[in-house]
Predict the structure.
Amino acid sequence: MMSAMKKKPTNSGVPARSNVAVAIRVRPPNEKEAKDSLIVKTDPIDRSVTIRNKVFSNFERVYGQNSRQSEIYKDLVKKQVEDVLRGYNCTIFAYGQTGTGKTYTMEGGEGSIEGDWETDENTGIIPRAAQHIFTELTAKTGIEYIVRLSYVEIYNEEMIDLLSSPSSDDKHLIRLFEDPAKKGTIVISGVEDIPVRCRDDVYRLLKQGTEQRRTAETLMNKQSSRSHSVLTISVLIRESLPSGEELVKQGKLRLVDLAGSENIGRSGAEGKRAKEAGNINTSLLALGRVINALTTNAPHIPYRESKLTRLLQDSLGGSSITTIIATLSPVNTNFDESVSTLEYAHRAMNIKNRPEINENVNKKDLFKEYSGQIERLMRELKAARDKSGVYLDQELYDEMGKKIETSEERISLLEQQLEDTLELMRKHLADIELMDDYYGKAYTRVRNLEQRLALRVEELEEAKMTIAKEKQAHEETRRALGRCRSHAEEAFTVAEETKKVGWEAHHELMRLHPRCDAIGEIANENRNVSLELSRSINESIPPMREANDLRMKNGEEKVKEAETALNVLNEAVAEKIPATKESIDEANETMKSLLSRLSSIHSSHNENAQKETSLLVTMIRKAQLHLESTIDSVVTQLIESNDEGRIKVEEMEHQNEIMRKEMDQLRSDCREAIATAQMKRMEAGEELEKKRNQFKDEMERKTKDMMNMMNSFVSSMSSMGETIEEGQRGQEETIAERMNQMGEVEMGWGDEMDETCEKLKNMMNESTEKTKDQISTCLPILSSMGQKTEDYGRKSEIDREDWKKERETIEEECRGKHELSLSSALSSIDSLKETHDKTQVDTVAALENTKSIIAESWKEVDGDMDKLMKIVIEETERIREIPPKDVEQVQREFQDNQSPPTEEELFAESEDEVEEGEENDENDQQKKFKEKAKLRRSNFRVRDSLLVGGDDLQSPSKLIGMRGQRIEEEGSEASFGSDRTNRRTNN
Ligand SMILES: Nc1ncnc2c1ncn2[C@@H]1O[C@H](COP(=O)(O)OP(=O)(O)OP(=O)(O)O)[C@@H](O)[C@H]1O
């Protein structure tokens, strides 16, 4: 294929001429060989193999029994795969005796075909190469590519397409021909060249081909392959250059698993098997000859001697990069075969190739080239045919016959070539059509995929939003849990405070109890004092009342007496008035008769009369004074009784004051007690604060644990979210990558895309399911945690309520007891005060009542006195108007009417008279005094006869005299009344 591609010298590290690389691999001995001696020694550093004494060196690589598949691949194949992708043809074939590990090296151990090429040690070169090619291709951007796979078997010099359906009988159609445009490049026609889109396609086809391989059991190996298998992976890469040119690269990787190279005789093959072995050896012998010819610079290389050599023409001495892996058995039994293989390999090592890269050309050039080629061939064909109708002489004819024969051969060759070229072209066209078809499909698919991608992106966005919501929900849950924690903390704080207050109250209560007891005792004492006081007051009130009553009674009596005396006086006056009138008349008469007689002595007699009058006035004044003093004494007594009441009131006030002081003391005690309680409360508070801190620390620790749990949960959730996000991101990236690739590759692998999308969808579904599962796993945990938090909160609430209730109870009890004791003390004090106030009020009322009674008495007395005074004044005035009588007469009259004054009175009066400035000598005065005393004594006798009452009250004349004197002194009646009133008020 791709004969139109020009070859150009190698570049990029591939030498222009390079020897076929030969590596030796020695497998480990199998069970059968366990007792056999190991004769093959490998030196990887020296790259030499020693078998007995024979040393084979300068190999590309040498691997011992413990070599690893991955090692082989990295050293021998990896670079070639990269070269294939750059446009080189590369061949790797395994050569060796049956059962030495050719298939193991090329395909891998049992079941290894589906293993991961990078990790699975069983995996052989073919699966690794397939994986590697697709990994590299998918990693490249800006290219389109198509990968095709053909798998043929050469068995008994027959080529069999291992990928065609087993029923088809088209094996004879498979031909090998040289690419006319690329000399030496052998093309296999008539085989299925199946496009593959991924590693799995390769595996599937490999499996299919392997099943078709004919294997026969030989004595040497149970599954000894009697055929050569050739797997070809062609890669066509179309690349758009920045210049706008379209470049096409085509590389080919041939992986050949040769049949065993053992001796027929030793293999034990018989009959058909022997034929097989022979054919096998024919091919291998031809291969040997080719190798010999190549290494000895022979003019002819017998590629055409066998299908195998024909097929490997390009790989041996051609433009391919070739690696041979010669496999060996390590044991002595296989010595000959091992030596043969080593010699074979050593010879092959000298084959020189000229690796050429398949020149990058654009599509137009490719067509042009093919067209030119076809045209040329057609021309040649036509020319050849045209010549066939010309008549020539015999010799010339014979010559021409020969020439015609030659020409016919050439024609047939050209026809063959033309046919091959046409087939190639058809193939290329088919490739291009296929590519275009793929491109169109891919374009449509890309569109569809873009739409799907948009949908996926939307879904992804939705999923992201869902995740974000979930995250938010988680965040909210975390926050809610945080709030719950803070609520719980608050609840605990409150509970602690409540506890503290409760304890404080309890302590305070405990401390207040004795204080309350003391207060109660004081209150009891106060009550007793109060009771005592009220009792004493109650006791003192009746005597006071009695005293008052008595005084009132006395006053009344006195008033009554005064009234009686007044009445008596009035009566006496009334009695005396007619007698007096008569006496006055007689006296008038006497006076008249004696007027003349007395006129001489008028002046002296007048003087005596004035003296008598003044004596009378003095007597009246004395009586008045006596009365006043009596009244004053009554008033004083009243005042005294009033003072007594006042003293009692004062005492009570004093008591009250004491009680107030005691109350103040009590209050200050209470305050002190409260201050002490507060202090104690503070102390208890500090203690409780400590305990609370301890409790809080404990709580914080527990909460921290809880939070740690929560955080780990949340972090696991977030990591889960991140994983999901990463998964999503990965999916996004994968989708984007896929889309990029899809956008860039116009060839059809829509199915792959579908599959990828399906896979992605599945992945997303899986991821969603996983997320759901995780969420569903998390939800019960969350709900249980929420439940726990709720329970916790509820418990805290209950605790808080309990504490609150307890606190209220304690407070109530405390307050109740405290208040009860205080209120009882206060109520006892209040009751005492009330009693006291009541007593005071009663006393004051009693006093006021007494006062009003006395005032009433006074009013009455005043009225009577006024009346009396009026009478006395009138009488006095009337007496004053009476003309002076004869002294004797007067004396008689007085003797008749008045009791004689006592000596002291007379003496006092005489002294008064002396003080009044009378100028008499001492003898005269004594004489006169005696005379006056005599007179007065006689007068008083008269008076005594007139008087009814005792000595306490003065005679009416005295009273009159006193009153008269006072009137004279004060000058008016009103002033006297007001003066007395004033004095009473003052009292
Ligand atoms: N390097 C190795 N390490 C472990 N086992 C190996 C190795 N090489 C070969 N074997 C084992 O040896 C046996 C024969 O190997 P294999 O079939 O690959 O030989 P072969 O050369 O392909 O034989 P045939 O020519 O008959 O196809 C297999 O069971 C294989 O697993």
In short: The pocket of adenosine-5'-triphosphate is lined by residues 27-28, 30, 96, 98-104, 109, 221, 223-225, 259-260, 327 (CB under 6 Å).
